[in-house]
């Protein structure tokens, strides 16, 4: 079948900021970062692949990972003149994206009158506030919900073949903004998607600069959408993939994709970015398949997991199946906070789970947050002390500390509105550099605590254990890269003036 003339650009325009590089795609919490990490945007990569399979011409236009300047990017965009430009945005970048959309529309109308690009915004922010973008820029379509791949195919077919739009679109009709109904995800069967075309989506851009890989080249998969728990009140993915909408590919399909990554691309490590990897029979079948197919000898695997859901036998199976990196949201070591944010784990679950994961040879990573409106300095200190102790006891290998941000669309944002906790509605400020919610801790105290968390885990005992764990040149390379990025990470949270 010949290719359609209709062309689609999946675009991440350069976002220049003195604070760092936009860590935008597939990141629950946006940051301007100095680490140089890049995350493979998996759902947009599925979208590119699905559209190409349906004979649309697709441009993979990640100018952030390609390190283009704004003018280099614009020049290339104008050369390609795509019929549809898709831009993923998050709260701290939405204002920049409005400006970019204005620029593109202005250019096309004044200098290139034969070019009429349809511009589409996707992401959690526009899912929460779909109308706002129409008030602030000449966007053509806003997609709500997180299945951009299925939705973009629906839109491309609608524009070229006049088919009916799925629910979840906002657009202009007769100068009014209308929508096609509330988005629905459950009928999107992930097993019907083509396996991601890694060449089309320039996998090498994301294969090396990422501390989730110890062995490179590495890559990302996303076998589920997004999290079978889906209830944490701060989690921006609950806006795009609400609780109850979880789906996954079959274990066989996941294993087939891994086989392709091993044999065709010689990938050494995979991080699966499902919000929480499926557990139960799915996980057991997947692990057994990794062992039966011999993939456990060829590749390392990482995933997001929750505390308190797996037993030692299951962790042992994961260890045997090639799992290495395992990321847990510790968030806080105060039970009141875990209950309030609907984490519904117990403080003591973390230690028990980490001990089991370590026993099976896994390398746990913790994510921790500071700045909950109800937490006192003593509460934050409790978390800091517990994190320090977990590292000292050899139960965790790495961590990430951030300031909690109430992203629009989340229950936490609603709680902030109800309690008058919001300090600003300037979306640019929602980049973790300053507190957004009222707190008994000053901004300086919060920064100091985040810095203390980063520094506090580097105890002599932890460092000696790390040095003693070196077994191969890959370990040396990983540890030195990690140390370098760890120090760079401190730059993402400027030092306290205290
Ligand atoms: S467990 Fe993680 S991915 Fe799932 S809802 Fe909570 S924060 Fe989001």
From TrEMBL:
It comes from Candidatus Nomurabacteria bacterium RIFOXYA1_FULL_35_17. Gene3D superfamilies: Aldolase class I (3.20.20.70), Cobalamin-binding domain (3.40.50.280). Residues 213-453 form the Radical SAM core domain. This is B12-binding domain-containing radical SAM protein. GO terms for molecular function: catalytic activity; iron-sulfur cluster binding; metal ion binding. Its cofactor is [4Fe-4S] cluster. It comes from the Bacteria. The keyword ATP-binding does not apply. Keywords: Iron, Iron-sulfur, Metal-binding, S-adenosyl-L-methionine.
